[in-house]
Design goal:
This protein has 33 helices and 35 strands. By secondary structure, the protein is of the alpha+beta class. The strands form eight sheets. The protein has a six-stranded antiparallel beta sheet. Strands 2-1-5-4-3 form a five-stranded antiparallel beta sheet.
């Protein structure tokens, strides 16, 4: 029996010898736990089955303590931790071992979990409340070091915000042993408070009771609950407030008094600086402050804000209509035009909402904050929006009420005042009511005979059928107009009967005698036809005049440009340049007259395309730089760096405007300066730019009385010396009209004898986003590069011989051959047998026109792919649109080489060959010993005398000083006959004479290279 109990016990039992510690016997629990056979254990030293660290410990402490903990080693080398009791009995020792591996594992797991718990956790001894352990989460919150906490009570470290709450917690825990979801407030070392849900229970550790406490942080939830509670309370207050406002407008009597009362309630509730209502005029052009409430210490603005034109604040109405709100916490974020209005009122923050009446914009209600920059919440904005709707509804009801009353009064007054006949019919055509003026009876029967009779009873059959048909159509469509003739007192008169449907399928007809207006219409039609014929005749005359003048101008300018490149005689070159300049001046005058005519007839359209602003302004400044330098004026160009590179503008017209304004500034300024400022403002809400050009001068100035006159065609300011200043008086007239066509504005500020400022404002200009793509299209070959066309055949069709010759001379290419035709018929005939690569086609010719000729060839399969460039002197804009759709390119006579080459390069194969002649000449230059000895002397002169002048010239590009510089170099080359020096001076002089600014700028920079090359010659 004892043996049976020994083997059935769950504890591991070893019986060993006292001296040698050899195992005498073990129970089944040992074999099962350590996985040994009994034969493996018997007579073996028990130390062999201990974990090696515990062997010595076993010998040393065998009888020193009641309980010992040893790690036994299983057969598979795993460890088994046992709580061991040792009993000494005679010469034997009994080891009773309890396997606590699982308990130890669970304990370690508990400790690990405890310390990694995301919630705050602690272990506190029940008997004295001292803290045994605390996890990192709780430690981080309370802000103490671990050593400051362990062994202290929660009372001592003051972790509970409410001590009574702690006492209640401990009392309930001791009574119940466990507590869940107990809400507590904990306090950190620095006073921070959190809310938590506490879970606690009593646990045993080494036979002693401890509180295991876990606190889940619910601060965010509590704050959210408080916020919701606050919002609910606030919403309730707002509901009461909205009800109060709504009740104010419950009835519409004393509307003005009730509106003021509503603003008073609204202002005090929102605690803003100012609340106001604005109402637009009937045309919607301006707005006025009609109601205003101001907080204490806030100045009223109502008297100063009457009939404010929307043109002063262009972005205001647009923002209200598109965004349905003007809202900002800082008015500096608003567009410039709005800040100009708000800043004098000391407004810092603002909310403005539109008021709509019958779905139409009526005005707006606004809320200003002048004391601080206010952070408007979404709730506040929605509240103000609701108020706006309440006031909109009140206004709408009031206006409808007034409108109904006025309508009744007006209807009565109109019916009494109008001389027209009114008839009320049912759908069968019976007269139900009528109104006939007493002073005029336009019918042959008495009015009292109409009532309760049908139309067929009163009028003849054909007219009564017309009336019945009109009644039926009115019932179907709602309204109808019947015009008819009827003899009255033997005079044929014209009448207009307007039928309008009423309820119950009844109609009312208003009949008016329109005999006079019919006669007037006839006369007006005749006058209109005459005006149209006159306008057409004017347009045809202008087109013919343009054609007749441009055609010979094409030859004059074309041949002059060709000869200029062929003649080396300087005297003849000067004559040719004079011809070119005079021809271009004459052409400019013709263009001015034609442009003015087009603008006045409404036929000049603005063509928007990507424009590089900086290029335009720099070119304008370069064009006038020589004249400015001759007059010893200073010219300043300043372009706002914030402006985009490209804007959508009409480049031709912008150049024309700037040329006229800057040209006038230069012409009328003899002393001082000319300044061209360019800046802009970007309106984020409108997603567009407004650009400002300002031209300042210190010229003769303009008297106040002449400042409007100068913008009239052919007018100049009084007292102006026509011989001294010249001009036709067209420039400013065209400029003003062009600016207006661009929806812009031009202003002038001037004082006689002190100069003038012209300011051009161009609004709503769109920025070009894909700048990289546009820049690629700005390619243009350089003049120091030669275009070498591959072999090609070009047809020129023109009925004027010298136009053909002029074009051939401008092209001037060895590889291009020409086919000529003096009419469309001949061109089509030649194309049947000869193949061409490109055609230049005149528009107006005898026989079939260039337009008709091109239509024919574009319909032929073998010809339709040939590029056709229109080559015309026409100036009619409506023609240009049609031509650009049909033709592959457009050239207006007179043309220059650059324009012609631009078209050729589109359709013909070519390569660009750089001119390397100068470099080759430099390489081939040979100097004698005598000259070589003088080279150091030459270099010294160049560096001391010429380099300082060159440094200034390469940036300023002063033409007349460059000319002196080139002449001095030529004179210097006589004493030092170096071919590279002579060639440089000659080439520079040629470029100065052609006034090619780009080439001058590039070539002048090569002077430093020339000096370096001369130095190299010395070393050689």
């Amino acid at each position: 029996m004892e043996k049976s109990i020994f083997n059935e016990l769950n504890d591991l039992i070893f019986i060993i010898t006292k001296k040698s510690h050899k195992i005498l016997n073990v129970n089944n629990a040992v074999l099962k736990t350590l996985n040994y056979d009994k034969k493996d254990l018997i007579k073996q030293n028990i130390i062999n089955f201990f974990f090696r660290k515990h062997c010595f410990f076993f010998k040393k402490t065998m009888f020193s303590e009641k309980k010992k903990f040893f790690n036994f080693v299983k057969k598979n080398k795993e460890k088994v931790l046992c709580e061991t009791k040792i009993i000494e009995q005679n010469n034997e020792i009994i080891l009773i071992c309890k396997d606590i591996s699982v308990e130890k594992f669970l304990e370690e797991k508990f400790i690990k979990t405890f310390h990694t718990e995301a919630n705050m956790a602690s272990i506190t001894r029940v008997k004295d409340g001292k803290i045994l352990d605390i996890n990192k989460t709780l430690l981080d919150f309370i802000g103490f070091q671990r050593e400051e906490i362990i062994g202290k009570t929660t009372t001592k470290i003051n972790v509970y915000d409410n001590r009574k709450q702690r006492e209640l917690l401990i009392k309930e825990l001791k009574e119940k042993g466990k507590l869940k979801n107990f809400e507590v407030k904990l306090k950190s070392k620095n006073g921070k408070i959190i809310y938590g849900l506490l879970h606690s229970e009593i646990i045993k550790i080494d036979e002693e009771d401890y509180f295991l406490t876990v606190v889940n942080d619910i601060t965010d939830r509590k704050n959210a609950e408080k916020k919701i509670e606050t919002e609910l309370k606030k919403n309730l207050e707002q509901q009461k407030f909205l009800s109060k406002i709504s009740l104010t407008f419950n009835s519409l009597d004393n509307f003005e008094k009730k509106t003021k009362n509503a603003l008073d309630i609204l202002g005090k509730h929102t605690d803003v600086s100012r609340v106001y209502i604005f109402e637009d005029d009937k045309g919607g052009e301006s707005t006025s402050n009609i109601f205003e409430w101001c907080n204490n210490g806030i100045e009223k603005q109502i008297d100063d804000l009457q009939n404010v034109p929307y043109t002063m604040i262009p972005s205001w109405k647009k923002m209200l209509l598109e965004d349905k709100i003007v809202f900002t916490e800082n008015i500096q974020e608003l567009p410039e035009d709005l800040r100009a209005i708000f800043e004098p009122q000391e407004i810092k923050s603002i909310v403005v909402l539109p008021i709509y009446v019958s779905k139409k914009y009526f005005g707006f209600i606004g809320f200003d904050e002048c004391v601080k920059y206010r952070n408007w919440t979404k709730t506040e904005i929605e509240l103000l929006r609701t108020i706006s709707n309440i006031i909109s509804n009140a206004y709408e009801r009031k206006i409808i009420e007034n409108s109904l009353q006025e309508s009744e009064e007006k209807t009565t007054a109109i019916l009494d005042a109008i001389p027209d006949l009114l008839f009320h019919f049912n759908k069968e055509g019976k007269f139900l009511d009528y109104k006939v003026p007493n002073d005029e009876n336009i019918l042959s029967i008495k009015p009292n005979l109409f009532l309760n009779k049908k139309v067929s009873d009163v009028f003849h059959l054909s007219f009564s059928e017309q009336v019945k048909k009109a009644i039926n159509k009115t019932i179907l469509k709602g309204k109808y107009v019947l015009e008819y003739e009827m003899p009255v007192d033997n005079i044929l008169k014209y009448f207009e009967a307007r039928f309008v449907k009423l309820k119950n399928n009844e109609v009312i007809s208003i009949i008016r005698d329109v005999s006079e207006s019919k006669e007037y219409e006839k006369k007006l039609k005749i006058e209109k036809e005459k005006a149209e014929q006159a306008s057409l005749a004017k347009s045809i005359f202008l087109a013919n005049m343009s054609h007749e003048i441009r055609t010979p101008m094409n030859a004059i300018l074309g041949f002059s440009e060709f000869l200029l490149g062929k003649i080396n005689n300087k005297e003849y070159k000067n004559y040719l340049e004079a011809i070119l300049i005079s021809g271009k001046s004459l052409l400019s005058l013709i263009n001015d007259i034609l442009d003015l005519s087009k603008i006045e007839s409404g036929k000049l359209s603005i063509i928007y395309e990507a424009v590089h602003l900086e290029t335009i302004f720099k070119e304008i400044s370069q064009i006038f730089k020589q004249k400015v330098n001759e007059k010893k004026l200073s010219f300043h160009l300043k372009i706002d760096e914030k402006l985009p590179q490209f804007l959508m503008m009409d480049e031709v017209r912008i150049r024309q405007i700037l040329f006229n304004l800057v040209g006038n500034a230069v012409k009328f300024t003899n002393v001082g300066f000319i300044k061209l400022y360019v800046h802009g403002v970007y309106f984020d809400k409108l997603r567009s730019w407004t650009i400002y050009f300002e031209i300042h001068d210190t010229g003769i100035g303009i008297e106040k009385k002449d400042q409007e006159l100068i913008f009239e065609a052919f007018e100049q300011q009084s007292g102006q010396d026509a011989r001294k200043y010249g001009g036709t008086g067209l420039g400013l007239a065209i400029t003003k009209k062009l600016v207006r066509n661009m929806k812009g504005e031009i202003k002038i500020k001037s004082e006689l004898g002190k100069g003038s400022v012209f300011k051009v404002i161009l609004p709503n200009l769109q920025e070009v986003e894909n700048v990289n793509l546009i820049e690629k299209n700005f390619f243009e070959y350089k003049k120091n590069e030669k275009i070498h066309f591959e072999s090609a055949k070009v047809m020129i069709v023109d009925d004027i011989y010298y136009n053909i010759e002029s074009l051939k001379k401008l092209i001037d290419s060895e590889n291009i051959s020409f086919i000529e035709a003096d009419c469309g018929e001949k061109a089509l005939s030649l194309l049947e047998t000869q193949k061409v690569d490109m055609i230049f086609m005149d528009l107006r010719m005898e026989g079939i026109s260039g337009y008709e000729t091109t239509l024919i060839l574009k319909e032929k399969d073998n010809l339709k792919n040939i590029p056709v460039i229109i080559f015309t002197a026409s100036s009619m804009q409506e023609e240009e649109k049609n031509l650009k759709e049909l033709f592959d390119g457009y050239l207006r006579k007179p043309v220059n080489k650059k324009e012609v080459y631009h078209q050729l390069m589109k359709y013909l194969n070519y390569e660009i060959i750089k001119n390397t002649e100068e470099k080759e000449e430099e390489k081939m230059e040979i100097i004698d010993d005598k000259l070589k000895e003088k080279l150091p002397e030459l270099v010294e002169i160049l560096e001391k005398e010429y380099i300082p002048i060159w440094e200034e010239l390469k940036t300023e590009l002063l033409i007349f000083e460059m000319e002196d510089f080139a002449n001095n170099l030529l004179n210097l080359s006589k004493n030092y006959p170096l071919s590279s020096l002579t060639n440089y001076a000659d080439t520079l002089m040629e470029k100065i004479e052609t006034f090619d600014i780009d080439q001058i700028e590039k070539f002048i920079k090569k002077f430093s290279t020339l000096v370096m090359e001369i130095k190299k010659l010395i070393k050689k």
